[in-house]
Give the backbone structure.
Amino acid sequence: MEDWAAQAAGTGIRPLIVWFRDDLRLADHPALEHARRSGLPLICVYVLQPAQEGMRGLGGAASWWLHGALQALDQDLRACGGELLLLAGSAPDVLGQLASQVDAAGLVWNRRYGQAERAVDAGIKQQLRAEGRLASSHAGSVLHEPWTLRPDGAPPYQVFSAYWRACLRAGEPALPLPAPADLRFASLQGLSLASRRRLAELDLLPQTPDWAGGLRAHWVPGEAAAWRQLQHFVEEGLRGYAEGRDFPGQAHCSRLSPYLRYGHLSPRQIWHAMSAAALQHRLPGQDVDKFLAELG
């Protein structure tokens, strides 16, 4: 961290870009924390990309959720004095254009693990470094990174039970990072990019017919809503989870899946919340253990 921060300090007051993807939150966001420690002004950006080979596209419900998630993240950033810059297009192209226009010191992001996603990220990192910019990726969406759970050269795990035993042997994941309290932002006033969009222009919501009434009635995207749901599950649904999870009509479904999908909560946050709840509420060990295995 210190070496990277020293490099960043050497770039003067040039801005640093934080690229949000499936991690639409402020707390326990290693890339954002890394950027904060650089002391440079930040540009927080989300890129809506066209469908790409090897990557799963967005369905209608996922698009509806993404609209609310981006809106919530923008509100959270504005409460800190910044905003979320929305771009549309090929990530290497639009991020390269942004970095060039603002003469960015570099770009930081949390890692993705699909083969196609890793290829895109590696290409962007190579491109930025060739331009003399900093590029840094971080672990923000897993309990343990895949290569830390097996000896060098060992084949990947083929069954969950062996993988999960390795996770447990690795010990508790690192403590989650708090939400940053002193973010410094670069001004976006006057920034002109052909790829820049307002949220409504991303066209993520259904129009005619508007079929999303049921979603709006039962779900609220965003980091704050995710924490409310986690607290509700701990207090109302976790006791009896080991057996009750098999019966959808009961109250033991956590309803945390979409919050994990878009990174409103990190796995590390949920892990430690469960561990604390087990002690505070004296929950049966089998319920907590089963839920943590499902999280794994």
